[in-house]
Design brief:
globular, 165 residues, alpha+beta, 5 helices, NADH Oxidase, five-stranded antiparallel β-sheet
Length: 165
């Protein structure tokens, strides 16, 4: 899958909205992710409101690039009714990576901005979006048409591979 080797973090976006069919496709990709016991603990907040995006861009010093994104998706996880609470961050990581790969395949750019497991970022994100108490914010994903081009670094390092025969 070429998107694995093409995906990079994009932090600059054109002033152009992301079409609703592309948003739907990104969310479908997220929900196609594996999860422990198939518990699918995710919920997604799709944000196009410029003021809310501005507020989310102030959650941390690293989130400033989100301010000019036309779209932000905030993956959240449920805290109730789960079989394995201890795996929700793994489940949401899989869903988020699927989103980023689909974003790349659609010709868009995106960046994963950390919320979880940092409590202050999580609670600030939840406050901005008025997320109910039974959900926790996992990340802020800024998305848009790229206004920058970057090549992925070669990360393959054979010294990190250990064969046991």
């Amino acid at each position: 899958m070429k998107e694995i080797f093409e995906r990079v973090s994009i932090r600059k976006y054109e002033d152009k909205p992301v079409e609703s069919d592309k948003i739907q496709q990104i969310l479908k990709a997220a929900m196609a992710a594996p999860s422990a016991g198939n518990q699918q603990p995710w919920e997604f907040y799709v944000v196009t409101d410029k003021e809310k995006i501005r507020q989310l861009s102030q959650i941390s010093p690293y989130a400033a690039c989100a301010e000019n994104a036309p779209l932000v998706i905030v993956p959240c996880y449920r805290t109730e009714g789960l079989r394995w609470n201890e795996t929700v961050l793994l489940d949401l990581s899989c869903a988020t990576e699927n989103m980023l790969l689909e974003i790349t395949s659609l010709g868009l750019g995106g960046v994963w901005l950390c919320a979880a497991p940092l409590e202050d970022r999580m609670t600030k994100t939840e406050a901005v979006l008025e997320i109910p108490k039974n959900l926790r914010a996992f990340a802020i994903i800024a998305i848009g048409y790229p206004a920058e081009t970057r090549k992925q670094q070669m990360r393959f390092d054979e010294t990190r591979i250990h064969y046991i025969k």
